[in-house]
Amino acid sequence: MKQLTSGQIRQMFLDFFQEKGHKIEPSASLVPKDDPTLLWINSGVATMKKYFDGSVAPENPRMTSSQKSIRTNDIENVGKTARHQTLFEMLGNFSVGDYFKKEVIPWAFELLTSPKWFGWDKNKLYITYYPDDKITKELWEKAGVAPDHLIPAEDNFWDIGQGPSGPDSEVFYDRGEKYDDLAPDDPENYPGGENERYLEVWNIVFSQFNHTENGTYEPLPRKNIDTGMGLERVVSIFQDAPTNFETDLFLPIIKKTETFSDQKKYGANGEDDVAFKVIADHIRTITFAISDGALPSNEGRGYVIRRLLRRATVNGHQLGINDAFLYKLVPVVGKIMHSHYPQVLEQSDYIAKIVKSEEDRFNATLNDGIKLLNDLIETTKKANKKDISGKDAFKLYDTYGFPLELTEEYAHDRGIDVNETEFDNEMEKQRNRARNARGTKGSMKVQRDLLLDIDTPSEYVGYDELTVEKATLKDIIFNEKLVGDITASAKKAELIFDKTPFYAEMGGQVADIGKIYNQNGELVAEVEDVQHAPNGQNLHTVKIIGNLKKDDQYKLVVNREFHAGVERNHTATHLLDQSLRNVLGGHTQQAGSLVKPDYLRFDFNHFGSVTKEDLKKVEEMVNEQIFAAKPVETIVTDKESGKKMGAIALFDDKYGDKVRVVKAGDFSVEFCGGDHVKNTSQLGLFKIISETGVGAGIRRIEAVTAKPAFDYFDDEERMLNSISKTVKSPSNDETPGRVKELQEQIKKLESKQESLEAKLASQEASDMFENPVKINGTSIITGHLKNANMNQLRELSDTWRDKHASNVLVLGTGNDGKANLLVAIDEEHVKKGLKAGDLIKAIAKDIQGGGGGRPNLAQAGGKNPAGIDDALKNAKEWLAQSK
């Protein structure tokens, strides 16, 4: 067996398929783009959906990648089994309508067995195939696999519902008898069974059918290949590791964790080993997720990060690590993965800062979780129950990060069990909520074969001209058919011209709108939308007004006012992007944008809120660039030259051989295929109108430029004029001072009113304090005050204590549809077992509210002031029954 590192293995796989004519695709962000069906990218093929369903035609139909992926559906098994992980890399090769079985199977065998490549013994390979797929079986035999190493399996058919599907073939590696953990006659002791000896390393899917909406399987117009090879598994074979965790992908993390532990070593104790593995796995996932722009929160992806971090922290406590430590593992992860993911190490300081903040916050609550668990155990024992409820155990798991096994361990030490069935039910409810949150829009589609077949050249010329006098109409699409001509009765159609000034929506910039005329100057269509067809053409969705005919020439006219507004706001997003980096730090990344003629929206990653001061700095910085009248130039070059110029690239954008670099003076340099002004002065003015959080670690700025910015200030001035008039200010300049004067007057009046109300309340209460009522030897004072609030009730309770007026005090007040109750009990009777919290809960229902508090003082609020007298009456009855 060759001695190879994980980096060498990954590169060898990519190099092999590059030699077979494949384009190496970079690993996409873990945060899916334009796919609401996925919380995370969870496989190599997840990033290829658009190619397989025909939405986009790839530049090269042969592609290969090592795609980082996250799956957390069976997180409870991480550390307990040899191969469960939340983050993994999927090596894959893909063919979109190009090669098929007769090419991919010999290639697979070559990669696995050739001395130039993996060099595995072919006798160690076992292959499963779909029983009806005789061609696959024959091709494996022809490649060199022994017939008795080929195993039919009914479940070797890949199908995720509507869309591409087909049979698949799985490759297993025989690790030898030393890994055989089953008896020879065990029914699972075979390649494909649940055992450690035969390790599945590769799945090759022959995507040849369309699973249609009505449940039938129709042959695909273009057959595809989709394969997935788990890098961690392959590395464990090369490095002869019992599990994935003893490879160079995990061991450095585990060894570093040992240095933080209290004399705990990996391999010395099975329970400790689980904790080491959980920490190593989870910190990899946390690091990569944050690197790709996700941040801890209480929902969606952010919740997954927070949950993983808490599980890792709890496992750290099991190893005797009581202080924040996970953040120190971030650079270790970065160094391990540096050869393929250099950005992780580059961002390690930023990632570590976020991780430490989360650790510190959770460590502060962890003791609360342990206290809650101890209280649950004591309560369960006092009630003579045998187990803690599954709901309570799930709360510990969900809120405090306690794994079920940890709760069970604590409980078992005290002779208590945990209701696992209830816990599982709560867990399933949570999973269903997560599934429902993802939705189904954007899932794999049935191929739109018509557009895939259209390869008509279509040039965008809108960078230089917004009117094309003569554009040839090359294709007319109506009702999913190519037609030669069309009339107004059709109402809607899709058109492709040989050239067009209309921008197709992309990169956040909306599509142009405008009109189409025939050569006689007659209006024949209105352009409502423009999108890119799978092969890159500009596909115009139009409202048909007159007659159009294929191969005729037409005049295309973009709406100039609309286009100019889009240009201004697109350039503004570039200035805003750079300003945010300058003010908030280089970690900020664009997370989305929308550029329309009347406003712009810009989403960006940032941990925490943006202060008003920072927002003001950003706004001023953008306006400085506008007022400086800096030239905006576009340079067409290659990607590497663009990077040397300092151009910012978005992680999920694909760039061809030629790229456009947009420079705004010496301030901003970005890759961009959109439209821009010629000079920053054309923006006129920039104004941020809102800044909000829209998701886990995602902030959104909405802003306007030019006339919409002027209109915004005009509206603000009108509002200020109205306020000045209302407060009777001589001028707008003096309005703030006048408002301040009025605020001070109001404050003085409120203080005087509160003082008067307190005196009235005190007068009302004076007679009450002189007339306590005795019930079974305990004195009680009750009173309904007409002129009081909760603060005054608390002050009266202090006076009551000073005077020792009675043993129990119950006061109520109500106004404006709100009711308040207060209960106070002296220390002597608290010691005898009377509790203010019990009494307040008993009477709060009379005011349609609830409350609680300490044994000697409790309060309640409600929405039924009319029930106060009943509450006071029931307080006396409660006291009578408490003896």
From TrEMBL:
Claim: Nucleotide-binding is one of the keywords in the record: yes
GO molecular function: alanine-tRNA ligase activity; aminoacyl-tRNA deacylase activity; ATP binding; catalytic activity, acting on a protein; transferase activity; tRNA binding; zinc ion binding
Location (main, coarse): cytoplasm
Enzyme Commission (EC) number: 6.1.1.7
GO biological process, one term: alanyl-tRNA aminoacylation
UniProt cross-references to InterPro entries, sorted A to Z: aa-tRNA-synth_II/BPL/LPL (IPR045864), Ala-tRNA-lgiase_IIc (IPR002318), Ala-tRNA-ligase_IIc_anticod-bd (IPR018162), Ala-tRNA-synth_IIc_core (IPR018165), Ala-tRNA-synth_IIc_N (IPR018164), Ala-tRNA_ligase (IPR050058), Ala_tRNA_ligase_euk/bac (IPR023033), DHHA1_dom (IPR003156)
GO cellular component terms given for this protein: cytosol
Gene3D superfamilies xrefs: 2.40.30.130, 3.10.310.40, 3.30.54.20, 6.10.250.550, Bira Bifunctional Protein, Domain 2, Threonyl-trna Synthetase, Chain A, domain 2
PANTHER family associated with the record: ALANINE--TRNA LIGASE, CYTOPLASMIC (PTHR11777:SF9), ALANYL-TRNA SYNTHETASE (PTHR11777)
UniProt remark on domains: Consists of three domains; the N-terminal catalytic domain, the editing domain and the C-terminal C-Ala domain. The editing domain removes incorrectly charged amino acids, while the C-Ala domain, along with tRNA(Ala), serves as a bridge to cooperatively bring together the editing and aminoacylation centers thus stimulating deacylation of misacylated tRNAs.
Protein name per Swiss-Prot or TrEMBL: Alanine--tRNA ligase
Record lineage: Bacteria, Bacillati, Bacillota, Bacilli, Lactobacillales
